[in-house]
Amino acid sequence: MHMGELRIISYSSEPFQDRREAGDMLARDLEKYGGRNTVVLGIPRGGIVVARQIAGILGAEFDVVLARKLGAPGNPELAIGAVAEDGKVFLDEALADTLGVSQSYLKREKEHQLEVITERITQYRSILPKASVEGKTAIITDDGIATGATMKAALWAVRQERPERLIAAIPVAPPESLESISSEADETVCLRVPAFFAAVGQFYNSFEQIDDAVVLAILKEERRREYAK
Fold first, then answer.
1. Structure confidence by residue, pLDDT tens digits, 122-169
2. Contact, 52 vs 59, CB < 8 A?
3. What three-state secondary structure class fits 82?
4. 148 by DSSP, 3-state: which?
5. Radius of gyration for the alpha carbons in the chain, expressed in angstroms and rounded
6. What's the Cα-to-Cα distance from 218 to each of 134, 186, 213, rounded to whole Å?
7. Can you give the pTM of this predicted structure?
8. Element (H, E) at 54
9. Domains in the chain with CATH codes
């Protein structure tokens, strides 16, 4: 447990115009991390739009985080661990023991999540090679969190790559999820923590479905931006 700094910018329930606006606003609060020693990683798929905005404004490197959560038996939303892009597993041993998770279940769940990761590696990494975060500031973002399980898994996986500083940047989240996230990051920034939270989509005027075609188009643009430097 790291229990890093938690910065809540407001308790407003006002919606964002779209994911780009959320990214713009987060970038303002992350200004001090501008430059090439920072990598901004988006969680597919909505988080990729937010990450790209932040990276563009900060002049930072952009990437996607392909880690997947290992869900608990009978409760897939509860993260008991994470599988990283390279297949490494991080397990919350204490939680897995408490829930009595068997080795055979873990093996099946890991294989299932690795299938999803492998599919995305095939699609995404042929366009945008994986960025190294070792010794850098790594900012992980999404378009919002509900349970926080996916963000937690991403933080666990990226922490294993030894960044100098690990930051969770979140447009909107319920307070209880935020608390559990902040124990995994060195710093957590959340723009809005509303009193009533049903779903991430309620806090966006425009919350269009992001499919793989949109993601691939963003990755291609980012690769061109990188090569133009």
1. 999 999 999 999 999 999 999 999 999 999 999 999 999 999 999 999
2. no
3. strand
4. coil
5. 17
6. 24, 28, 9
7. 0.94
8. helix 46-58
9. 5-66+129-228 (3.40.50.2020), 70-123 (3.30.1310.20)
